[in-house]
Amino acid sequence: MAQSFVEPDKTPLALLLLGQDADPDSERGVECPGDLPPASDPDLVARAAAAKAALGDRVFILGHHYQRDEVIQFADVTGDSFKLSQQAAARPEAEFVVFAGVHFMAESADILTADHQQVILPDLAAGCSMADMAAMHQVDEAWQTLTRWDLADSTIPITYMNSSADIKAFTGRNGGSICTSSNARRSLEWAFERGERVLFLPDQHLGRNTAVRDLGMSLEDCVVWDPHKPDGGLTIEQARSARMLLWKGHCSVHGRFTAESVDDVRDRMPGITVLVHPECRHEVINKADLVGSTEFIIATIDAAPAGSAFAVGTELNLVRRLALRHPDKTVVFLDKAVCFCSTMNRIDLPHLVWSLENLVEGRVVNQITVDPDTAHWARVALDRMLALPGVATSTAPVD
Ligand code: SF4
Q1: Model pLDDT for residues 190-243, shown as the tens digit of each residue
Q2: Which of 102, 229, 355, 374 has the fewest beta carbons closer than 10 A?
Q3: Percentage of residues in the chain with pLDDT exceeding 70?
């Protein structure tokens, strides 16, 4: 039986017994069949290199910025999830797309790539706790409530890229659009040309930060829809008068940073620039100097003059790599406590070697597929985002 350490009526947490079974309510998957090489195998790097060389142009390895160094070294391209999916789609000669990232990213890659391309996630248990916080049945219930309240017709769903394919498809079916952390403002503006309020899924922080910081709304314009409470915990009057219905979801990595983290680093390192991702809490955003997507964070530090100092509020693997890449600058993690994305870290060298060597042997393992109807409507929502001015030609960074 699946075990997920979940109270019966609560959203599943990002925990599975490692390598055991599946959580049916989660976007995450099941154990890897077959034998993984031991992590202690001294030949893992050589084995990965040999398998990749044997596959040649047939394989394209995508490495998300938050991945471990041991995996990133084999990536043909690194980036955020949307940029990586676009890159895979631009390589039709690659029969196999190995996505070193998390499940929703591999789904997006399957939606955006051609039918003959097979997308592989080296460890099916690499999910995303934020994506898991919006289960399809919960979103359906919320929409039914809004319909019963006669509010659905005036509500536009805007869904963050960090979501499962079925939530993206829900968005497409109901007149909404996907957004990334760099185009959330344009997506919201687009939505308010079409409706009176937005149902923003699944990251309450990105929704609130964009509405208040970029669109000048007040915090009172934003209410939280709690899927664990009847009618989202709201009255019809609260929902009707709100401009933003924020789904009660968050990133377990970026949600850890606090206003005290900012105060503390400023005390320790006076004059440091605090640079954070918009998935952080609103009080953190308010205290930061700069706010932007992963690609914005990378570009800002790359472009800064020698001697600059940054405290960065995003995933630790990326912050550590940026610090190593810029020995002439000071780049520190915003929080004192170490905080990796634990599900991203599920992809390690043994899983990469295992998936590549199986491909060499002619076995496609851990393929991620999205059914045609879901893929169609998710694509509709993605295409609405791409049609926003400037988005299709930009890298549209996310996560
Ligand atoms: S960093 Fe946050 S949003 Fe990104 S995969 Fe991890 S839990 Fe999900």
Answers
A1: 999 999 999 999 999 999 999 999 999 999 999 999 999 999 999 999 999 999
A2: 229
A3: 89
The answer to the question of residue 338 being in a domain is no
Provide the whole-model pTM: 0.88
Residues 121-135: what's their mean pLDDT? 94
Ligand 1 atom nearest to CA at 341: 6
Ligand 1 probe mutation, 102, 123, 247, most atoms within 8 A of CB: 102
Q: Is residue 77 part of a domain?
A: yes
Please tell me whether residues 248 and 262 are part of one structural domain: no
**Within a domain: 207:** yes
For residue 29, what pLDDT is reported? Answer: 53
- Take atom 3 of ligand 1 and give the residue whose Cα is closest: 251
Residue 147 has pLDDT above 90, yes or no: yes
How far apart are the C-alpha atoms of 143 and 244, rounded to whole Å? 14
Residue nearest to atom 6 of ligand 1 (CA): 341
Domain-embedded: residue 29: no
Q: Which of 26, 84, 252, 318 to mutate to test the pocket of ligand 1 (most atoms within 8 A of CB)?
A: 252
Q: What domain range includes position 121?
A: 44-127+343-368
The H-or-E segment that residue 237 falls in is helix 236-241
Q: How far is the centre of ligand 1, averaged over its atoms, from the C-alpha of 339 (Å)?
A: 11
List the Cα angle 385/221/134 in 5-degree steps. Answer: 55
Q: Are residues 73 and 94 in the same domain?
A: yes
